[in-house]
C-alpha cells in the first residue's frame, strides 16, 4: 500500500463494512451492503482495470475491462462512472450501449434484454433456415439479435423484429 492509504493500482483503499465478514478481494455478494466499489486511476490500463474487476469477482474481467475502456473513449470520469455501475451488477451491455452477437455490434439500451451466448446458436440456426428472398419476423426481439443475424445472412430477405417494450423497439 502506498502513502496516504492508497493502493498503487486502484486509488483509495476501501475497507469492508464492519460485520461483513469479508476480506479484500471477496466478491461483492450483498451489493450494496458488503464491499464498496474500488476507484480506479484517472485512466487505467486494461491490466489495472482487469485487477479491479477480478477482485470484485467478475469471471471475464479482461474482456469486460477492454470493453469498458473502449466505451469510455479516453474519458476518465466516464470510465469511473461505468466501472462503478458495473461493480453494482448492472449488465455490461447496458453500460457500454452495445453487445456483439454473431460478429455484429448491436445497440442495447438500459432495460432491454441482453442476448446471451446461446442466442448466437439460435440466431445462426434461424438465419440458416431463412430461404433466399424469404420473410421472417422476430417476436420479442429485445435488441434484435436474431433479426439482425438473419438480415446479415440473407440481405435479400424481408426481416422484421417486434417487441412490446418500446425501449427494445428503439434499438
Written account of the structure:
- By secondary structure, the chain is α+β, with helices and mostly antiparallel strands.
- Helices cover 39% and strands 13% of the residues.
- The chain contains 7 helices and 6 strands; from the N terminus they run ββααααββαβαβα.
- The strands form 3 sheets. The protein has a two-stranded antiparallel ribbon with strand order 1-2.
- Helix 6 (145-153) links the parallel strand 5 and strand 6 (158-162).
- The longest helix is centred in the C-terminal third of the chain and has 13 residues, at 117-129.
- The relative contact order is 0.10.
Helix % is 25-40%
Sketch the topology as an H/E string, one letter per element. EEHHHHEEHEHEH
Number of helices: 7
Beta-strand percentage range: 5-15%
What is the end-to-end distance? 45 Å
- Helix vs. strand class: alpha+beta
How would a textbook summarize the main sheet?
2 strands, antiparallel
Rg computed from alpha carbons, rounded to a whole number of angstroms: 20 Å
